[in-house]
Amino acid sequence: MTHSYLAYLAALAATDIHPLGIAASRRLLAVLDLQPGQRVLEIGCGTGGTMIRAAQHTAVTVDGVDLMPDMLRAAHKRQRQAGQWATITLTQADSATLPFAGQTFDRVYTESVLGFQPEAAAQAMLRQIFRVLKPDGRYVANEAIWRAGVSPARVAAIYAACMADFGICQASPQPWGLDAWLCLMQQTGFQVAAADLLEEVVTGAAADAISDANRLNRWRRLAHPLLAWQSLVYRRRLARHRDDGQWLESRLFVLVKE
Q: What is the pTM assigned to this prediction?
């Protein structure tokens, strides 16, 4: 699988590239309930925006893993600029084979990582998260999933079109709505503490949609001809998918390992 759109976002060092952007990240951090001395894991850390906020939020240490070297390079640069060498560790790793011992982390979180996984990969990822969490640990996930009742044919069509245009889709290839995801989470051993619609728990999203870091993306595109060309291409492709959102919903899952 190629992730051409993700490579473009990595070149921009884009942050908050998930439903409801920085407002959703702030809500996720609040729900994580970070405490001094805890060890935290972000799977799919991308360019490191949320990870930096987590490390700055309180006296915690954060491990960030991502499969894409381009994302990790951008995260390393952001880590250096933020002066977070002592509190953040970055590792290239697959979510299905996390390189950590069992019961290592107090908190784990993801943003638009679990929701687009195929069934087998989603099962493996949840098993790994459950394994590395300590007892009473918490996993919080901001994820886009299919709305209840979306037909398998529509899911397949949207998924195929997104893969062709971006190399990635917003939600899973299987037509899983909320009930299917909750069932998988519970089968893994998690207790589901919450699965709120993000639109109902996040306020100020419209006013807060573009972070200061993402405003720099405009200047990066202007300064780099290839990025400017890619921006034009992806804007046209995104326009073709403008209606996809009506079939999706964004959920903030809070899972507990008892």
A: 0.90
